[in-house]
Amino acid sequence: MNKRSFLKYGLLSLSSAVVAMGTWGIAKFVFFDSGRKKRREFSKEVLSRLQPDVPMHLPEAGAWLVKRRDDDQITAFDDRCPHLGCRENWNSERMLFECPCHGSEFDLEGNVRRGPASRPMMRLYMIGQDGNKLRLHDKPPSS
User: Fold this and answer.
1) Residue 60's closest CA among 88, 80, 39?
2) Does 5 reside within a domain?
3) Which helix (H) or strand (E) holds 46?
4) Same-domain check for residues 63 and 27
5) How many domains does the chain have?
6) Parallel, antiparallel, or unpaired: how do β-strands 133-137 and 63-67 relate?
7) Which residue, 116, 107, 56, is CA-closest to 82?
């Protein structure tokens, strides 16, 4: 194999790898799954463990539960950032939800404190089920 052939095949291999990685990245973005297909159920017993203004993460339900100190109201939020779907973390020192991917920050009410997210955290609604289970829905229960 001469020098010209070696460079030709090397450049062809490098170009193929770049195209493959770009195609994979685009496909991952287009077919992004935010995890909404989760079964958003949890035990009613979880509510008794909630502390005021200390969010509790329920990874199996893909949600954060927050009990407000002011009125003991319990709010549920999707645990994924509305910007690109990264799983948010709770920073107890700053009292904020933080997105580890792009730095968005949200307060205890789910409102955006710092972007790039432009929408608040998705609110979830609790609906009682038979027995000891509660279910979370992305739409409020019909009256």
Assistant:
1) 39
2) yes
3) helix 45-48
4) no
5) 2
6) unpaired
7) 116
Claim to verify: residue 16 and residue 80 sit in the same structural domain? no
The single-letter DSSP state of residue 17 is: H
Look at residue 142 and tell me if it is in a domain: no
pLDDT tens digits, one per residue of 3-26: 899 999 999 999 999 999 999 888
CA dist., res. 114 & res. 85, Å (int): 16
What is the CATH classification number for the domain harbouring 72? 2.102.10.10
Q: Tell me how crowded residue 127 is: count the other CB atoms within 10 A of its CB.
A: 13
59 located within any domain:
yes
> How does pLDDT run across 40-98, given as a tens digit for each residue?
888 888 888 989 989 999 988 889 999 988 887 889 999 999 988 889 999 999 999 99
- How far is 91 from 105, CA to CA, in rounded Å? 10
